[in-house]
Write a structure and sequence with these properties.
mainly alpha, 468 residues, single chain, iron
Amino acid sequence: MFESFDALLLARLQFAFTVSFHFIFPAFTIGLASYLMVLEASWLKTGRGVYANLYRYWLKIFALTFAMGVVSGIVMSYQFGTNWSVFSDRAGPVIGPLMAYEVLTAFFLEAGFLGVMLFGINKVGPRLHFAATCMVALGTCISAFWILSVNSWMHTPAGYEIAANGQFVPGPSWWAIIFNPSFPYRLTHTVTAAYLTTAMVVGAVGAWHLLKDQGNLGARKMFSMAMWMAALVAPVQILLGDLHGLNTMEHQPAKIMAMEGHYDSHPEGAPLILFGIPDSEAKRVDYAVQIPKASSLILKHDANAPLAGLDTIPDDLEPPVEIVFWTFRIMVAMGVAMLAVGAWSLVARLRGTLYSWRALHRTAVALGPSGFVAVIAGWITTEVGRQPWVIHGLLQTAEASAPLDAPAVATSLLAFIVVYFCVFGAGVWYILRLMAKPPQRHETAEPTQGPVRTAGITPAPAVEGERP
């Protein structure tokens, strides 16, 4: 039944599905691990039980999310050897070591301290447990470092040489490969997006419980911390997005043209198209709502600066404009919404209504998934905007796929869809159930106890009649 399908398209859909599903979990765990680190540091510094209660509340959610992220990532990586074996053969000498470094540094670091973090809160000293939490949080950031280095190299390849057999091999310096031109911008933009994603989720959970009980101390504390994060980080993220866009304009101009919907060149200043319906066949944006010369002002910081359009790009090298155009606007819309709710929370603080302004709480609940929507839309913009290249300017996607028949790819794609929605759907449902339970309403006193002694040196209980 799948003979009429295109194997290349199915392979791309399979990778897009699995990586989109996977990206949801790291986008949450990177920020949540750092949030747990802040909670435990606040607990150790102040001794207040509210921070300990929140730590335990979010630790269970972190454990489940982390596990699902690891499993979905392993499944995704297997596709390099099945559906994209040509890419693996050609680029393996460059990307293989980078992905191995991720395992040797980040994964081993996380695995080494995760058990202490999850199960050692009453078994080791508080400082050692806090160190374990810090190491797990650091590991998530190191993992993002290496994975984004690999992905960035595919967008802006540098430091490579092409061997006689056509493979991409490292040049004289690995630093040029790791710190390729787009990597610093992509890393900061993505990690900041993960922090914002976590802030919106934590804020939504806090707001949900405030709508039911405004006096819940745990809900008040988590909502306040999340809104501080949104208010402070959302403007920074918009600035980082602008810098990332300027870098993309330099190295991947066709992607920017597709994002902006510029089919034609504009020698005297390009308009900023807010909305419209791109028509790639007619090479125009229908029903365009635009601001004259604003695109040139944003991208070149000069309203009259010329901007090239897709008319300067061969048709077979143009990215799919319709997809890139709309996903970019979805990402920007989510960013503006997060900026707005952060600003709204500052107004509420000044008015003393942060915990009683129900309209703010309802909005925060509605925007709980906004971070996930933004990171997925941004990922689609980045990856689809790179097409038709898998390694920009060097290796096209059509040349990188494995010689598989469509039925084989379609069967595995259907299996992934069924298994993912069943297994991970159950996991997400359970996480939502945990979030639906309110944190402790009052601040409980946390006993200051030392680590539980290990077996073999724990003093035996005194026998009746015997001197203790």
